[in-house]
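Hi C.,

You asked whether I'd gotten around to modeling the 334-residue construct. I have! Everything is below, sequence then structure, no commentary in between.
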Amino acid sequence: MAYKTLTTSSNDCWQQQMSDAVKSVAALCNYLELDSTQIFSNNAQLNFPLRVPKSFVDRMEKGNINDPLLKQVLPVSEEIQTIADFSLDPVGDLTAMATAGVIHKYHGRALLINTGSCAIHCRYCFRRNFPYTEFQLNIQKQQQAIAYLNEHHEINEVILSGGDPLLLSDAKLGELIKQMKDIEHLKRIRIHSRLPIVLPARINDSLLKVLTETNKQLIMVVHCNHVNELSAEVGVASEKMRHANIILLNQSVLLKNINDDALQLGLLSEKLFSFGIIPYYLHLLDKALGTAHFEVSKATAILLMQQLQAELSGYLIPRLVEEEAGMKAKTIIF
């Protein structure tokens, strides 16, 4: 399907915005008028450093140590605690690795680890400890991945993941999509990306042209946890993707003291829908080492869902799910 530009201009500065991302806790706290010595742990960022685009920082409230967007990215001392049941590979990605760069857990779907890079380092990330150097796709591994997809006729959907697949250049994404074009049993390409939310400048005309030069149905699963993340620029990016006939879904993670509130979850669903994005999944936390301070109990999560059910139309209510290593599908909790 050919993509026609929504406007005559496009925003091609996303690479510069990536380069200018905030990588220093001191710089972040200085901009937000906070005392960095009181609210973060240097040890927590030794293996998982801070990274956050300035456009996302601009959505945070200055002077608010409890800002829900800040709490998603700020390294804190709780991350270096060892907690029972929290592990390096909480959802069994490594045991489900069919070939380098290909995770094949569920019938009909295979996931490609396209890159280990992200535009933002979310502290609750379930792949924060993933050995990307060993498993992410390079040129040789990509050929092996395409061969695997060709050989497995039961796979009708490919999921591009990472890291964040939209950090690949247009040329690399285009080549990958081109290689999948002739795999007849593939029906859909699903892209999981945080960039449409945290770096909406990435959704420019050149990217959309590359994505839509395919005979497969395209699905973009964005990742937004709080209504404050949904800026006007995110709305423009969403409109461009919908104009390109890309189906838009959102998945969130339920995070303690960030979005574990029925009012906030309801506001998020309402605004997502106003942007043309369907609330899809609300995940219980994947128990990655270093993330225990974000955990919300299953009982609390169910109560929140019951409150949402009483207030919202059904199509605004995401499914509450949990991913468990070794299972053949996500477990639907509510």
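If it helps when you're writing up: The radius of gyration is 19 Å.

Thanks,
B.
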